[in-house]
Amino acid sequence: MEHHQGQDPLEETGKGSSGARRVGRPPKKDYNADALMEELIDEVVQVYREKREIKATARELSLPPNKVKKLLITGGELVCPETERILKLKEQGKSMEEIQSALGLSYSAIHTYLPYSKVIYKMDQVSQNAERVKRYKDRREAVARLKRDCTEENLWSCILAFQEYPFHTSSGLPFTYTLKRGRSGAFTRELFIDRRANSKSLAWSSVRIAFEKALEKRETVFTRPKEVGDIRGISYSYSLLWRFGVIRVPKEVEEKLRGKN
Fold first, then answer.
1. Is it the case that residue 230 has pLDDT exceeding 90?
2. Measured between alpha carbons, how far is 42 from 33 in angstroms, rounded to an integer?
3. Cα–Cα distance for residue pair 21/7, rounded to 1 Å
4. By residue range, what is the domain housing residue 166?
5. Are 46 and 52 in contact (CB under 8 A)?
6. Does some domain include residue 166?
7. Closest listed residue to residue 231, CA positions, set 204, 251, 254
């Protein structure tokens, strides 16, 4: 099925579609696209109520901001004047071209203000959304466990859960990290940092030392990484420890760690 250029991939304009069978794990028998869509909307609303920002919500769930806005509109959490105007024009029988002309918005922009009307029943796309929800829940639970019990084991669980999460350093530089598996199949104790064009590694031992030093100064508000300790890779560990809820930082530093620079 062809979609108009700019149309959101979750928007369905017909009854299903056919195509080549996707190679990979078979779909679960109890798969329910409607239920997964409702779960996604519920999670987006929950994160948005905590973060109060579309961009921050999008980062937590690894979703594009426009898709988050559309899901919030669908869930009734976000009310936009543009949505009401578009729906009113549609009720008057206006074509999409007429609505574009009346509002001065592009086709894709108009669709970001409209709620989802149907769920696309392609297993790969629904599974991607379900996986995003699961990843967010895993991260949230890992942080909650670490806050309840600050142990190395729980810190390592956070490290595992937050692979490929979009972090920022205190100077505002974006980075992610991944772990590699050894011959035994277990993850190696080294974080491979991807900072756009530059890549480097961060030893788990360095993260652990920063964690231990931070625990020794639990009441401290750390204004910069070196205050935790003069440790290799501390600019990265500082960001991890803040996101995991281990350390506190000033408001202006928190803005940079959130990527608001």
1. yes
2. 14
3. 23
4. 150-257
5. no
6. yes
7. 204
179 and 115 both lie in a single domain: no
Q: Which of 103, 131, 159 is the endpoint of a domain?
A: 131
**C-alpha distances in Å from residue 12, one per residue of 2, 127, 193, 220:** 10, 16, 38, 52
Phi, psi dihedrals of residue 203, rounded to the nearest 5°: -70, 140
Q: Across the beta sheet with 174-181, what order do the strands follow? A: 167-168, 174-181, 187-195, 198-203
Helix (H, G, I), strand (E, B) or coil at 180: strand
For 135-162, b/e burial (b = at least 16 CB within 10 A) is bbeebbebbebbeeebeeebbbbbbebb
> Which pair of structure tokens corresponds to residue 55?
């961009």
What's the angle, vertex CA 12, arms to CA 11 and CA 17, rounded to 5? 135
- Between residues 118 and 100, which one has the greater pLDDT? 100
Q: How many domains are contained in the chain?
A: 2
**Does a structural domain hold residue 42?**
yes
Same structural domain, 121 and 157: no
Instruction: Determine the Cα–Cα distance for residues 252 and 204; give it in Å rounded to an integer.
Output: 28
Q: How many Å apart are CA 165 and CA 158, to the nearest integer?
A: 11
Output the pLDDT for position 8: 42
- Give the integer Cα–Cα distance in Å for 55 and 169: 17
